[in-house]
Amino acid sequence: MEQHLRDRILRRLEALPDERGYQVLDYVEFLESKYAERATPDNLFTRLSERVEDTMRAGKAPISAITGTVGLFDGAAKVMKGLASAAQAVVDETTKVAREVTSAPSGPTKPATPAPEPPTSDGPAG
């Protein structure tokens, strides 16, 4: 979709109350089913959120309950994304350290020579 058209639609959508927004969503989904393949989201939380949202709408749940539930799912998705990013950072750092350790020169090490003992002024014991 052209950016100008997308911006124009978004300006109109932002002015609508949630109930009208769901009507627009219904119409867009109708157009998808009629003219194109439905795009399925790759993210597990997004798919789950949309499934719950559709179920609540079919059950005639109040809009405030639907938006609250979807907000909860969005918050959980953000937390999971943060955890995944943190885990990826740990893996990256561990990989970096492992590469540094394995790429360090591993040739024979020179044995340490003991320091000479200082001479004693007592002379021979005897």
List keywords for this structure.
mainly alpha; 126 residues; 2 domains
Query: How widely separated are the two ends?
Result: 104 Å
Name the average pLDDT. 80
Measured as a percent range, the helix fraction is 55-70%
Indicate the multimeric state: single chain
The low-pLDDT segments are: none
SS summary, helix count: 4
Shape: elongated
Total of domains? 2
Largest pleated sheet:
none
Instruction: Kindly state the number of beta strands.
Output: 0
User: Strand pairing plus helix content: what structural class?
Assistant: mainly alpha
Written description of the protein model:
- This protein has 126 residues and is mainly alpha-helical.
- It folds into 2 domains: 8-39, no CATH class; 42-101.
- It is 68% helix and 0% strand.
- The chain is built from 4 helices and no strands.
- It has helices at 3-14, 18-35, 44-58, 63-103.
- The radius of gyration is 33 Å and the shape is elongated.
- 2% of the residues are buried.
Chart the SSEs and their pairings.
Blueprint lengths: L2 H12 L3 H18 L8 H15 L4 H41 L23
Helix pairs in contact: 3-4
Short account of what is shown:
The protein has helices spanning 3-14, 18-35, 44-58, 63-103.
